Amino acid sequence: MLRAVLIAALTVPGLAIAKDRFDDDPPKPTQTTQDCTNGQVWDSRTQRCVTPKSGALDDDTLFGAVREFAYAGQLENAQAALAAMSDQSDDRVLTYWGFTHRKLGDMDKGMSFYEAALEKNPGNIAARSYMGQAFVETGDLVAARRQLLEISAHGGAGTWPETSLRQAILTGTTYNY
Fold first, then answer.
1. Which residues are within 8 A (CB) of 135 and not within 5 positions of it... i.e. 6 or more apart?
2. Which of 43, 98, 99, 120 would bridge 113 by S-S if both were Cys, CB 3.0 to 4.6 A apart?
3. Where are the annotated segments for Disordered (predicted)?
4. What is the pLDDT of residues 70-120, one digit of tens each?
């Protein structure tokens, strides 16, 4: 019975409506990735590029920059913006620390951040999707499928985290954002 449910979950197309639980759409390029250099982030208040650690930016602005940098493949810049965020124990911060470390080649460190994010918030479906994709990369499809089931159990059916992990399991190709 469980096997039939899992097979159905892996083959029924999802609605791919959300990139992660923190924002519904992929980040659009802004001045941060179009005009700023050396990991600087656009400050809409001052209308100029600033270093993330300057203290001029709030965590939501920094998180937007993290996502934009990660989406653009600028993982070191994403980490600089993450480091500037005030609450390093926030599960969204932990999730993106995991993502950036994994994509920079440190799978163990990435997994430890995903585990910390899920300990903080078991319903973090973005962390579950990224962790599941890490399992796909290491060939542990059983563990990846467990994360897929957890995503659905936490209300993530039809979301981007669920759809991207399902596709990764089916194709062996993971996402870079």
1. 141, 143, 144, 147
2. 98
3. 19-38
4. 999 999 999 999 999 999 999 999 999 999 999 999 999 999 999 999 999
CB 42 within 8 A of CB 36: yes
| 52 and 119 part of one domain | no
On whether both 91 and 10 belong to a single domain, the answer is: yes
103 and 177 housed in the same domain? yes
Total length of the chain: 177
The pLDDT-based confidence of 25 (bands split at 50, 70, 90) is low
Do 74 and 111 fall into the same domain? Answer: no
pLDDT tops 80 at residue 26: no
Same domain, 79 and 124: no
Q: Do residues 94 and 175 share a domain?
A: yes
pLDDT, tens digit, 9 for 90 and up, residues 54-76: 788 999 999 999 999 999 999 99
> Is residue 96 within 8 Å of 117, Cβ to Cβ?
no
Nearest to 165 by CA among 143, 1, 155: 143
